[in-house]
Amino acid sequence: MTWIALADKDDRRFSCFGIGHDKRDAPVCGTQDDDLLTSGSIMFETRQAPDGRPQLLLGYKSTFPWLRSLTFQAIPGGGVALVQVQGNDITHAAIQHKDSGRNEVLRITYSWDSTAKWGRLAMEHPESNRVVTVPVSNPKPISIEDLRNMMLGRGDQTFSSDVIFAALSSRVEPIGPMPSLLPSTPLATPWGFKPLSQLKRGDTVMTQDSGVVPVLETVSRTVPARGSYAPIRLRAPYFGLQQDIVVAPDQRLVIDGPEVEYLFAKEAVLIPARHLVNGFAALQETCGPTITYSQLLLPAHETMLAAGAPAESLYIGRLRRQPVHMASSVLAGFDRNLLPEHGQPAHPVLKWFEAITLASRRAA
To answer: Which tens digit of pLDDT belongs to each residue from 6-26?
Structure first.
């Protein structure tokens, strides 16, 4: 299973063989217009205005030879509604979120398995890691023709100016905690730096404050290289790096120094890479349509050393106590009895405006 379509303001592509580096030799879904995708995921990211004005965000409509439509609409008060129509059958779901008071980015993922009569609408806030889900009752399979038209912008389709990107997968995509380092990222171990991809359960790594700790799990995921997944290059020698590394925008680094103590009365803080982009120490990385990220799960959410920079390991909180959410995550299939529980991060996570203040002071 793989990503088969991607659309943004500059590019639209659709392939039944997959897009990006995860394309296959054989199609991963039907290739004829009337073939059906019985399970999959539609993911998109959108900026939702603070006033929560209603508007169509993404969707399609076809009336020949019978009525078919799928729409995602921003609803008053903050939230998104899904409506799927096939003939006389209507499927509806709505999801609300607490308005942050600013034009924040939301990630919406609609996943379905029509054979199992199961569906899920999820809303994620990439900057805060909040996830809200609602069930979708009896979702219908979607024809390849309708999906192709929606993703390529053909016929009666909607792609709002507030939508950053949309992507289509032929599988039910995970939600929740996500990996955020390239598999090639060198991590400090007792035997020197090793690529993340070479580490597995039972191996050990060096951490910033806890010495040597064991690796509990290694997780990976391929995602569209757009929006809150668009890679960022962190450049050496900034942040203590010995070489450049490429990370996801949500990868958090531990930042310390006199400015941190003065502004926040803390020895160190966590800053997502998205807030470090300044054109020289951190900048957007050119990439193809998809990218694969990996990450290590450590016992107490310890801080790793990625090419010398203190980088956060995978944070899962108390996910093991939430079987439904765990089954929807990248850790699905792992024995939850072997997973740790992570308390609050050791350092406070800066909000976007705090990170901007710190960056401005350091640049002064």
So the answer is: 999 999 999 999 998 777 889
- Convert the pLDDT of each residue in 49-76 to its tens digit: 666 678 899 999 998 888 999 999 998 8
Residue 98 has pLDDT above 70, yes or no: no
From CA 244, how far away is CA 247, in angstroms rounded?
A: 10
Residue 241 has pLDDT above 80, yes or no: yes
> How many angstroms separate the CA atoms of 55 and 162, rounded?
10
What does pTM read for this prediction?
Answer: 0.93
Identity of residue 287: C
Nearest to 41 by CA among 87, 92, 2: 2
Cα 198 to its chain centre, rounded Å, is 23
Strand order in the sheet with 55-62: 89-96, 79-86, 68-74, 55-62, 156-159
The 3-class secondary structure across the chain, one letter per residue, is: CCEEEEEECCCEEECCCCCHHHCCCCCCCCCCCCCEECEEEEEEEEEECCCCCCEEEEEEEECCCCCEEEEEEECCCCEEEEEEEECCEEEEEEEECCCCCCCEEEEEEEEEECCCCEEEEEEEECCCCEEEEEECCCCCCEEHHHHHHHHHCCCEEEECCCEEEEEEECCCCCCCCCCCECCCCEEEECCEEEEHHHCCCCCEEEECCCEEEECCEEEEEEEECCHHHCCEEECCCHHHCCCCEEECCCCEEEEECHHHHHHHCCCEEEEEHHHCCCCCCEEECCCCCEEEEEEEECCCCCEEEECCEEEECCCCCCHHHCHHHHHCCCCCCCCHHHCCCCCCCCCCECCHHHHHHHHHHHHC
